Amino acid sequence: MIPSQMLKGLLEGAILEVIRGNETYAYEISNHLETFGFGEISEGTIYPIILRLQKNQYITGENRPSPSGPKRKYYRLTPAGFDYLDTFKTDWHKLQSAMRNLLKGDDGV
Amino acid sequence: MIPSQMLKGLLEGAILEVIRGNETYAYEISNHLETFGFGEISEGTIYPIILRLQKNQYITGENRPSPSGPKRKYYRLTPAGFDYLDTFKTDWHKLQSAMRNLLKGDDGV
DNA sequence: GCTAGTATCTTGCAATACAATATAGTCAGG
DNA sequence: CCTGACTATATTGTATTGCAAGATACTAGC
User: How far is CA B15 from the centre of its chain?
Assistant: First the structure.
C-alpha cells in the first residue's frame, strides 16, 4: 500500500507511539499498525526496530506468559522514550508543514 | 531540522512536484526546498535523485546558458512523471491518514 | 503426530540521504 | 591578471533502514 521507502524513519516513532498508547508486544504492534492504515508491517521490520529502541533505552521489556502461545515481551516507554517521541512528533509536524507549502500551489490539475 | 531519515522516499516526489510547478534546475531546486521548510538539501542529495528521475524517464533535461555561471540543466516532467507524481501524492495522503489515526488518541499529555 | 496460529529473533539485501570531493564557468576587487 | 566567492553539475563512499526469508519454539485442535 504505502511504499516502504516512504515509511523509513517514521516506523520507529510510530511504534513508540503505539507502545505509549498501551503497553504491548511486538506481534501485536504489527496488527495495530495495519489497523491504522500503514499496511502490513512484517516481523523482519518490527523486531529490529524494537531491539534498536531497547538498545537506545527508549523502551524497556518484560516477559509475561501468553494464554495461547510462547511468552510475550511487553514494552513500555522510558522517560527518554517520551522525550524522543516528542521530538519525533515535532519533526513530523515540520514535515507536514513543508509538504503542505510544497503542494499549496497544486490545484488538482 | 527535519531528520534526513524522515525524508527518505519523500524527496523524490517533492523534487518532482517542484519541477512540475515551474521548469527549473537542480541548483535552484535546492533553494526552493529550503524555502518550503525542508531544511538545507545538499547537492549530494539532489543530483543523484535528479539522475534517477531522468533514468526512469520521469523528467527530461535541456541545457541552457546561465546569465551568471556555468550552463544550467532545466528539467520538465514527462507524462510518466505526471503519473508517478499522482501516485506519490496519493501515497502521501495515505501516510498522513495513517499517522492521523495513530496520533488521534494523543491529547498532548 | 501434524498442522495452524502465536511469538521472537537473525541474516542478507536494496534503497536512499548525505558528506566529501572534483570540476568548471562568471565576476568583482585588489 | 589572479584570487576568492558564487554559481552549477556530478561522483564516490558510508550509514541507516525496511523487509523478505528463514530459524526457533510454544500451544491447541484434529
Answer: 2
